[in-house]
Automatic annotation (TrEMBL):
Keyword annotations of the record: Cell membrane, Membrane, Transmembrane, Transmembrane helix, Transport
Family: Belongs to the BioY family.
Membrane topology: Multi-pass membrane protein
Name the UniProt record assigns to this protein: Biotin transporter
Species name: Acidimangrovimonas pyrenivorans
Protein's UniProt keywords contain Protease: no
Subcellular location per the Swiss-Prot or TrEMBL entry: Cell membrane
Cited Pfam families: BioY
Membrane-traversing stretches: 30-48, 55-72, 78-100, 112-132, 152-171
Length: 184
């Protein structure tokens, strides 16, 4: 990793923190807030790639774990990882890495459709696949209840996928940061 990579990782950790400024919307049924930070996860992977995007989220989550109030609503500290949103927080790293990996694989033919696909698979399917079972376990509720409780978030996350896809394609055209994966 060179200095440029370190700067990008730190920059996206800062972007994640800045996205916490948008006030969270908490639905009365479940304790998981709707935040703008999941957009940052998609952008980290889609703009930086798997390695740098994943590292940006690890840095951000490390800062949250030591107590900095960088999550929406001013939350922070190791305890947030043990609550009902903990699986989603851990999933942020996995999602950023996966979105980055898919973006690298699609790089030579990256367009709005496969950028959206990368964000949808990593930022919704994979993230919910980690977050929902965690929420069910911590809240001691059936998996189906946790699943149904998460469904109101999907339309907003689809909009975030669309926004992230537009940004990813625009960055590729104007200032490409990602290097394409070599095919075997």
């Amino acid at each position: 990793m060179d200095t440029r990579d370190i700067v990008f990782v730190a920059l996206f950790a800062a972007i994640m923190a800045a996205l916490a400024v948008f006030p969270p919307i908490t639905l009365p049924v479940i304790a998981v807030p709707i935040t703008a930070q999941s957009l940052g996860v998609m952008l980290a992977g889609g703009v930086l790639g798997a390695k740098r995007g994943g590292l940006a989220l690890l840095l951000f989550l490390g800062l949250v774990a030591i107590g900095l109030p960088l999550l929406a609503g001013g939350r922070g500290g190791f305890g947030v990882f043990l609550g009902p949103t903990g699986g989603y927080l851990i999933g942020w790293f996995v999602a950023a890495w996966a979105i980055g990996l898919m973006t690298e694989m699609f790089w030579n033919r990256l367009n709005y459709l496969n950028a959206f696909f990368s964000c949808f698979v990593g930022g919704i399917v994979l993230l919910y696949g980690i977050g929902i079972p965690w929420s069910a376990f911590v809240a001691k509720i059936p998996l189906t209840t946790a699943f149904m409780g998460s469904m109101p978030f999907v339309p907003g996350d689809i909009v975030k996928c669309l926004i992230a896809a537009m940004v990813m394609v625009a960055v590729k055209r104007s200032y490409p940061i990602i290097e394409p994966r070599q095919e075997a």
